[in-house]
Structures are given as structure tokens and as C-alpha cells.
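Q: I have three molecules that I believe assemble together. Could you output C-alpha cells for the complex as a whole instead of separate predictions?
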Amino acid sequence: MEKGEIRVCILRVGGTNCDAETKRAFTELGVEAEVYHINQIAKRGILQESEALVIPGGFSYGDYVRAGAILAKGLLTKLGDDLERFIEEGKPVLGICNGFQVLVEAGLLPGFDGVGSRPEAALTTNIPVGYRCRWVYLKHENRGNCIFTSKVPRDVTLRIPVAHAEGRFIFPEGKEQEYLERLYENDQLVFRYCDEDGRYAEGRYPTNPNGSFHDIAGICNPEGTVFGLMPHPERAYYGWQLPDWTRRGSPPKYGDGRLIFESMIDYLTRKF
Amino acid sequence: MEYIARVEVSLKPGHSDPEGETTKNSLKELNYPVREVRVSKVYRIILEASSAEEAEALVEEMCQRLLANPVKDDYTFKVEEKI
Amino acid sequence: MSRRLYLRKSVPFSLLEVNLLEADNGDLARISREMGLALNLREMRRVKEYFSKVGRNPTDVELQTIGQTWSEHCYHKTFKGTIRTSDGREVRSLLKTYIVKATEEIDAPWCVSVFEDNAGIIHFDGDYAVAVKVETHNHPSAIEPFGGAATGVGGVIRDVLGVWADPIACTDVLGFGPLDYDFEKLPPGVKHPKYIFRGVVAGIGHYGNNMGIPTVNGAIYFDESYTGNVVVYCGCVGILPVKNYVKNAKPGDVIVLAGGRTGRDGIHGVTFASLELTEESETVSRPAVQIANPIEEEKLKRAIIAVRDLGLGTSITDLGGGGLSSAVGETAHRFGCGAYVDLEKVPLKYPGIAPWEIYISESQERMLLTVRENDLEKVLEVFREEDVEATPIGRLTADGRLELRYRGYVVADLDIEFLFSPPPVERTARWVRPRLSEPSFPEPEDLTSDLLKILASPNVASKESVVRTYDHEVKGNTVLKPFCGRYDGPSDAAVLKPLDGSWKGLVISCGMNPRYGKIDPYWMAASAIDEAIRNNTAVGGRRISLLDNFVWGNPEKPDRLGSLLRACEACYRFAKGFGTPFISGKDSLYNESPLGPVTPTLLITAVGVIPDIRRTVSMDLKESGSILYLVGATYPELGGSEYYRLKGFIGRSVPKVRIKEAAETVRAVVKAIDSGYVKACHDLSEGGLGVAAAEMAFSGGLGLEINLSKVEASGGLSRSDFVLFSESNSRFLIEVPEKVKDEFEALMKGLRFSPIGRVKAEGWLSIYGLNGSRVVDVSIKDLRDAWRSTFGG
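A: Yes, here they are, computed for all three components at once.
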């Protein structure tokens, strides 16, 4: 389909707060993006009319109980069947920061056995503890399965900021190796924290900003169409958002984050 | 009938608890002989059910569906009739 | 409580008649104290006089309403009152005589609404204006640091919403006692600075982060006097289309209360802020602390912006200090209306709250709107869609009276004019210049270790471990962040790009020099203004507006008021001299604790613009081979400096501002930036040339070679340590490429400036003293490590 025909649904609830800049990232690419409250999406069947769903960053429902947990259940109960069909049709679902937490809590990521209802991983309290806003480097690990990084060559290092208190990705104790192997087998691993030169953080702070297992920053489902990441690509969209662009005299046009949105739109124009 | 459930959700043993660790260090700074601190969350839920068994079953379900993430959390609860 | 003074009315709820008509002076003082009114005898007698004329006793609701409206926090009695000085002068209203006067005389075309609304509004770009407000939340933060600071942020965000602006950035400037303060020395009722520090920082982060408003600028200061009086300044900037700045309420409009429910939170917060903290405060005042719910405010914000965009409101104000009593009264007063409110309609958190409590409760996350009858249903629908409670609670009337009802009974009936004419306060001011002398100590041969110590001192050291707990990137519009350069140097100001369709940027900076105030509050104020302006200028800001926020001790004591007067005098003179109008301000007085008064503290916030954000200059050195210029003259001004503090002195040679030179310097630096000659620019403040040069070097990962004998020095500066650490105002360090040297110098013609060194590829700082010998010799890694050692990264 043509770019102009693509409709991106950006979901929000009370506490969502990165919707405006996420919407801007899409409209800048020439697609139609609209922010909808989850109640509107459910009531008006917005999902059936959309080609992509994005859960932006924020503190959905205050992140009470656990980060993303309440919205995750809301997603399953309010949009359940529609969402399942949406994903089965191969329509992309992107979760950024709190959105990633939601997708994990909803069992959509890593989603080893399809759309499960029980989480198989968790994004939990940072080590060292606390909210932290800083720029990190990400190594692209995906071998081609993830539709959100098709425009990012493998092994390339991207620079995108994080801002969260609960971003430490973990698997159930005792299953770490088994699950990790499955991530690799299914080509679900997308981003790992690394340093400027592309060397893995190996858990070292602040290169790995939250103590994530295996330096994991972002993963996709086995089909590559549901993707969650802790860093905020919408905050690394323009060159003037970079933390040290003033060293160059004038900012570059774009930042690395834009590649993720471009890849997603590219997939939609080709597939549908 | 009304029941009161007291649910405690805590990190599974072995899972690192950065919040507890930070609190421990802070308490030690204040010169308390603290060995370990683990943080858990307590919910006090008042619910309606026809029997204590039903109330317990409902609370069990709440824990599994929302209050705990089985990847990292354990939970215990106690249900009492509200007087 | 005496039955003679308080009579229970025979109504089916709690309502007292207060026997004012038969009260003598002793009774009046007692009533004020027992009801927590914080009104003095003169004010109580004025109230009695009013009710004598009316011919009846007041209800508790009426007295509480008057107490709130006349409180220092709501009415700013000191700034509006008359001051007699010890040398026989009489100043009628500090606010009008100094602050507003500067603004009126400057008459800047960009001012849209100043000193009349919840926030100052200035033109930004095209059809857009920005609204700015800075508040203090000291007393609540002293009692409950997390909640106090969080509600401080929530409150100032509502101030900005209260002029129909969409909040886009927060600023926070904090003052704490020394973190290593001896526990044993703490008097009862005063919490340890470390506890307060942790709570305040967490509270600020919690609210701003949860609401998704970036915290882009701020500062943290430490001072012994902040131990008993924590200082918490919360600022917010918002943006609005000028045409949406609607204020046209009229009689008949419906009063709508929106947001959170009302509970007993913060009852007597206002009068509590107007009293000194005492030992009892901890137990007595705890109910004065409010509970914060940023998610509720986030929803409230969305609904209000939607109402604004649909053009459905006729006025709006926030509920802050004094709760409904302030919001309703001020709205009616402002539009020359009366108002009636049915208190029974106010949604409550729990039953059993007395009418007076409902009316003055400071429950958070509430806003008051007026809407035309015809639009009411549409407005309520907007709030419903956002899942926010909104309730019509009354109406504006034409009769100039405030009438409150509860369950069908009239519980208050006051003349609005009376309510807004408290007896003017008259106070005495006497400032006595402290007896201080200039210290005498030998000049060290090597200054490296002193430089490292100053970099690590709490007021200079990196606050990165705090700043990174605040989201400064959310909304994706932060162009220049708190940290810049290759190695996270301290930015002079924040730059935002608020509009998608425009390259124009908003520049936010601040200035504060509490140590100078210990010598002379006049030069402290002058220095704070100069610092805020030069921080703004250093990144490319111009067309600057200022906000003044005073934190002082008890103004009823002549010496505190004397120093306040001096600071205000400087505010007028230097704002006028720079052509930078004040657009908003606030005072927090009565900051006294068992440990004594707060050191007089003036925060100046500067808001400028940059025509194209792609011209923004950061402070990190960019290229080896560049020339480093010091623009502005250096004087022997080390009074209150970091260097003297390190040596254990205060001194008396406080930095001054030579306004003509200062204003010319600022203009020339802006021109040089616009001409593209400036690779890096950094202001000189605490720690002077030494600290500024070190910060520029390690932020850029480049070295510097500096020769102090090249510095434009005045006033008999003959020691290398004084040249290196003098804190003279109006100075900039500027990196200029060799190839535009002549052009740059031509622009600076007529100013005091000189090339003092060169940027080196090797990461080393070498500084040569006045006699040519090397006085600083250190790697930039050691400098950066020292700077980051105190609070961590």
C-alpha cells in the first residue's frame, strides 16, 4: 500500500506521556498517525482500521502494581480478540519503554508460543536502583527477522536515549540459558547494550544502564512483527536531539531512532 | 459476604532486590546492624464472595492474573471474613 | 476551645459562630491562634470592625476564608505593604516600587501578561506565547520532603495550566544543609539534610517524570542555614497560542471544579507557610502536607488543553494555597463579580468534612474554570472523556458578594471588596552592613590542588547522579540538555525547540549566589541577575525576561526586611540596566527554624530566545588550536567566593556588576555567536576562571594552555590565585578559531577582553601565573574525576 494510506494507531491511557513525539515520528514519514485512548479503540473498533499499533512510553496507570502490568491486562481484556487477529495478520505492534513493559507483561513478548496470557519474562527494577535518563549505544543483533530494523545493517551501533526505572530484562531463574537460546534460534534478539565501539556492555554500568540480562535492550516475537525496546527512538529522531551535536557546528538531519520507524513503514508498504 | 484478603507479593528468593539492597545500605549508614532487607508489596483487598473458599479462589486468581509476575514474584495471602 | 467564644450553630452539620463582637484584644489573638488563622491583632480588629458593621458574628467558614485570603502566601502582605527604613525613607510596596517598576519602564514589546495572572506570559514565535512560573515549596518539604517537593512541582505545573498553557518543561533549584551535618547537632524537629535531600530529589523526579514534563534546568546549593530551612524552587514553562489566552468571565458563568477529590489534605498549609517552623511543626503540621498524584494531573492537563482548544472556558485558575477560598475569591475579584458556591456539590474523598475544611482544603490536582451556561455540558463531556471528575459548584454573580452555602444553609456571606482589602502592613527595615574584613593569607605556589578541591566542593561538583534521575528528554524537544559535550559537561542553559514548524528556540537559565548575600544582599541580587543573563547568553539566548523568587527570613524582624529591601533595589537597577523585564515572581518569607533564619536567597530565572536552535553554542572545547578569549574584566572580587570558602573565609570584596560594561558585553557575545565565530562559550561563576576553564577542557576532551598575565585585570590584582579564582561578574570564556580571530576581535572592540590561551590536543591543563611560572599542571581526567567525585556519575 501507499504510505499515505497507512494508519498508525498510537494507544494511550492515563499516564501515557510520550504519545505526541511518537506521533510526530510517524507523521514526519508521511503516514497517518493518531493517538487514541484505549476506550476509544475498543469502542470504535480502531484496531480493525489500522495497520500498526504503537504503545508509547510513560507511566500507564501510574505503573502501580508493576510497570506496565495494569495496561497489559487492559489490553488483553479490552482488545483481546481484535489484538490477536491483528498480530496474526502480521500487522506490526511496537512497544517503546513503558510499551515494552506492557508487551512483556501481556505475554506478547517474547511470545515463544504465540499469544500467551502469562508473562515469560520481566522488566524489573534497575541495577543500580533508580530512574535514569541517559544516552546509550545499542548493537543491532537481528539477522533479518525483525521488521522494525530491516533498514539497520547487522552489527551496526545505534545511539538512542533511555529513561526508566524498571528496564532490567530478566528470564525466570534457571531458564535463562534455555530461553536465551530460543531467542537466538528464533532470531528474536534485536538490540543489546554496547559501548561506543560496539563492544557488549557485559552488564557493566552505565554502558548497560539497568543491569539487563545479556545486555538485552530490545526483542521481538518469533514472527518479528511485535517489537519492544527500552530506549526511546522517537527521542533520537532528529539530529538536533543528539546530546553532543553542538560539537559539529550544525546538527545532522536525522538521528538513529528514525531507522526504526522507517523500517516499520517500509514493511507496511511492501507487505500490505 | 465480605472478606478481607491480605496479599503479600515479594521477589522470589535468589532474585536480586536493588530496592532492598539500597535500603539496607542506607540503614547501615545509620549504624544499624542490618544483614538483609527484602522489599515486598502488601495489598489489602475487600471483596465479596459467597464463601471463604470462593474468596480464596478469587484472590488466587487475582495474584496469577495481575498482582504477581510469575517470572520474579512469589505471593502469599490470607483471607478473613470481614466483621 | 472556650464556649464563650465559639457557639455551635443549630444546623445538621458542624458550623461554628465565632463570638467576635464580644471579643476583646486577648480573645482576638486567641481566636486567631486557636483557629490557625495566622492573623495579627490589627487584622483581627479589622475583621471585628467589619462584622460589627454588618451586625452579626462571623461563622468559622468566614473567618477561615479571611485568614486564607489575607495570608502572606496568598496576599504577599510584605511585598505590598509599607516599609519604613532606619534612615527615614518610606517605601510603599516593594513590588510596585522596584520589581514592577523595572518592567513598566522597560516596556518590552514581548510582554503579553505580567504580574497579573498565575504565570508571566511573553510572546514566543508567530501566534505562540510562553508562560513561565517559579514557586517555592520550602515548608512542606521540610516536614515531608518527598510529598512536599512533589506537590511543589504539581503546583507550579497547575500555575502554568492556569493561564491555558501546555506545560513543556520544568526547572528545579534546591538548597540543602551540608550532607555531612553532625546528627548530634540537629535540634529536635529538624530532619537531617541527607534525608531531606533524598526525599526532595525523589519527589521532584516522581512528579515531573510521571507527568512526562522534562526537567531541563536547575541547580543545587548547600549552605549551613539551609539545614533548618530547606529551599525548594519549582519552575514550569508552558506554551500557548496567544489567541487562546482567554479571560472573559462574567456574571452568570458557571464555576466548575475539576480534577481530584477534596479531602483534609493540606488544611492550613497557607497559614503554616506564613509562620516560622518550630519544634512542634513536625507533629502539629503534618496534616498540612499533601499527597501527590501526578497521573491525575496528567489527565487533568489533557482535559484542560482540550477545553482550551475548543474555546469553551471563560477563565481558569489553579487551586493552590488556600484551595477553593483563594481560587473562587480571586476569580470573582478579578472580573469584578460576586460568586456563590454550594459546598455540598464539591466531591469529597470521604464524608464528615466540615464546610470550612472543604473551602480551604489544599487537596492537589484540582483546577477551577468558569464556563458559559451554554457550554457547560460540552465542557463536562471533555472531562468525562479523559476520565476526570468535573462538577459545577456555583456561579459568578453580579452583586459583589461571596456567598457559600451548605445543605441549604448560608454558611458565609462576605463582601468581596472587603475580602481583598486587608489592612496594609507597616514594617520597619534596618540593614546593618556586617562587619567583615578581607582575609590575609600567603599565596600558594601551586594552585592545582586548590583547583581540584574547588571542583569537588558541593556547590561546584557535578550533580549528574541527581540530574539523571529526572527525565530531561521526554517530549523530544530538548536541544541543549543539562549535560553537553563529549564528556558530559555542565551546560550553561537549556535550549528547547517547542514548535515543530519553527527553528526558534527557548533558552532557560538561572542565577543564584546565596554566599554573596552574607556580605551584601544588594550585590547578591545584582550578581544573580548577571549570572542568569550570562548563562542564557552563553548558549545564544537573547531578548531575556526574568523571574524573581525570594526566600527570606521573618520580615517582621527589621534586619531581614532591611536586606530584602536592598535586594529589591538591586533588582530594579540591574533589570532596568540590562533591559530585561521581570515577568513573574514570588516570595517565600518566614524561613526560620530553631537553627536560625535562612540565608537571604534570591533565585533569578532567565528566559530568552534563540532565533535558530542550530546556532546553539555549548560550553565544551571543540578543536585544538583554537584561541581562548576571556571577555570581561577581572577584579579583586573574592568575597563570598569558593576560593575564600576553601580557605575558611567569607571576605568582603563581593563581586559587583558594572552595568554599562555588562550590558555591552552581553550584546557583543550574542553578535559573535550569530556571526558564527564562537565554537564554545562558558560563563564564569563559582570558582571563577579556574573552574570554567577546567570544565570546558574536560567536557570537550581537550587540553588548554592559559597565561594569567594576559588576563584583563583591574583594581590592583597582583596574585595569580586571585586572578584564577576571582568571581567577578559579566565574564565569558570563548573559544574562537584562529581564522576568525580578527573578525571576533573587531566585534569585541571597546570591551575589556584578551586572548588568554590556546586549546591543545593533549588532555592537559597548564596555567602559567603572573610571574610566568606554572601554577596549574594537571590532566583533564583528574579534573573531571575530582568534579565527579563528590556526588558520583
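A: One point stands out. The longest strand of chain A covers residues 132-140.
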